[in-house]
Write a structure and sequence with these properties.
Length: 441
Amino acid sequence: METRAFQKIYTKITQITKATCSLQATGVGNEELAMVHGRLAQVVKIAGDNVTLQIFSGTEGIPTNAEVVFFNKPPTIKVSDELAGRFFNAFGQPIDGGPEIEGEEREIGGPSVNPVRRKQPSELIATGIAGIDLNNTLVTGQKIPFFADPDQPFNQVMAMVALRAKADKIILGGMGLTNDDYLFYKNVFDNAGALDRIISFVNTTEDPPVERLLVPDMALTAAEYFAVDKKEKVLVLLTDMTLWADALSIVSNRMDQIPSKDSMPGSLYSDLAKLYEKAVQFPDGGSITIIAVTTLSGGDITHAIPDNTGYITEGQLFLRRDTEIGKVIVDPFRSLSRLKQLVIGKKTREDHPQVMNAAVRLYADAANARTKLENGFDLTDYDQRTLSFSKEYSEKILAIDVNIDTEQMLVTTWDLFATHFSEAEVGLKKELVDKYWPGKN
C-alpha cells in the first residue's frame, strides 16, 4: 500500500511483544491498517491515546524508533464479478498471477444481517454426498461444521462439496493449508472446469498464522456482495476453523489477555458467532450457507473450539473412518442437521423422512449385533442380516465418495431394504411400501 501525502508518521514505539507493538497516537480507528517498519499491521486495541497494533508477520527486528504509518481505513476488498475463478491471499491480493480486481471497495467484517431481513430457510442445498443429503440434508442459509480428525481427508470432502453443490457461487476460505492442499484445490477446480463459479481466499502454512484471522471476513464480504447485490445462492466453505481459533489465541495471549478454557480467548464464542451468523436466507432469493471444518484434537468434542461452535451452528457433520469398509463415512449417529425437516419430504421425494429413519434404525440394530458379537453372544438370523445391510449401507450411501442425486439415494436405500429384510421388518407405511418397494410396480 502506498503512503499518501499528509499521513502522520509516528516514530516512537513504547512497547513491543512477540506479535504486537504499542504507541501513543490520536485519531486512529479500531481494526485500522497500518505499516510498521515496512510490515503490515492492524489496530487491535485502543485505550485513550495508547494504540496496540498486531503485526501480521511478527515483530522480530522492529526497533523502538521504527516508522508507523496509519492508512486511515480497516482491511477492505474490491468486489465485482471479476472475483469469480480467482485465488487471493488473506489481504485480497491475487496469488494466481492474474490481474488486480477492478470493483467497489468494501470494508470486511461488517455486522451480520438484521433478523427482520431474514427469511426462514426452506431451499434444499444438495451436496451430492449421499451421507449428507439422505440423513443430514442441508438448507440454504444454514451454518454447519464438519467435525473431523486432522488426518481425515476433509479438504477432499470440501472440494467435492464445492464441485457438486447446487449453488451460484462457491467461496473457499482456506486457513493454514499446506502447499499441497492449495495446489490440490487449484487443480481440482481447474480440471472440473468449475473455476468460473469458485472464489478462493488462501492462507498457507508458509504465511504468518495471524493473517488467517482475515480470511473468513474476506470470504464472507465477497459472499455478501453476490448474495445481496446479485441475489445469488452462495456457499461458503471455511477450512480449518481450529487453525483460525489458534491464531486468535496467539494474538490474545501475546496481548496478555487472561486465557479462558483450553488457552482460548474469553471472546471465542462471540468471535465465532460474528462469522457464523453471516449465514442467511434473504426473502428475495439470495442466500449465504456456511460449511466449515473444525478439526478435533484426539477426537475431543469437548474442546472449547468445537464446543462453542456447536452452540452457534445448526448441527454438525461428523466424519469417521469405517474400519469395516476401509473408507471415511458421514457418521449417521453423531451427525445432525437441525434444519433438515424444513426440506425433506417437501423439496425431496415424499418417502425421504421415512426412508432416512428406517435406515438409521436398522443401522443401529447392526451396531447392537456387533456388540453382541464382541461379547461372545450368538447372533440371530436377523442380526446377521443387519450386519450385511450396514456394510452395504456404509459402502453405497454413507461413504464420502458416493456421488448420487437425492432421487437415486432413495432408490438405492429401498434396494438395500428389499435385499436384506422383509417389508414388515423395515416397518414403513404401507402406502410407501406399495409405491416404492422394488418389484412392486
